[in-house]
Amino acid sequence: MPKKIDPKVRERCVRQVLEHLPEYPSLTAAAEVVASREGLGKETVRRLAVQAQIDGGQRQGATSEELAEIKDLKTKVRRLEEDNEILRRAFLRRGHPALDRVGRGLPLNALMECVIGLDKTECIGTTVFHTGPYRTIGDVEYATAGWVDWYNNRRLHSTLGMMPPVEYEQAHYAALNREPQPV
Known about the structure:
Layout: H1 7-20, H2 27-38, H3 42-55, H4 64-93, H5 110-124, H6 137-153, H7 165-176
Helix pairs in contact: 1-2, 1-3, 2-3, 4-6, 5-6
């Protein structure tokens, strides 16, 4: 891991290289002189000066702000890829062959695909049923179990009169099993 350079030292090195650049045949030569004075590597100082030129608009390239954004996006992509791999393994383990390979999925009925989509959106895509990133298949299974319990027992469903499915089912069977009332 690269060592952190004090921002004041960084600024001083860049200023000295850019101020004395006309005195040297190249940016590398100027950076080498400044680096030896400051006790840093010549390539480190050269890169700092080049980045300062890019940030100042004197040279083509990605600015420091753009590089930070790229780094952040790469981190997010890596996390998403890790989460997707955990999800893929969890679904395969639970017997969902449609997630075996991209473009080679086996046909599942629309209802199953809808439920899997809901699971991904409501359970995996939020922190309601699990805090922090999913690190293991067990994390995914635990969160999914919580989601299934909520989905079946506590979720208010608009087509059921804003009742949870379990309560609606109990009311339905209670109405069917009513004893006839004497007239």
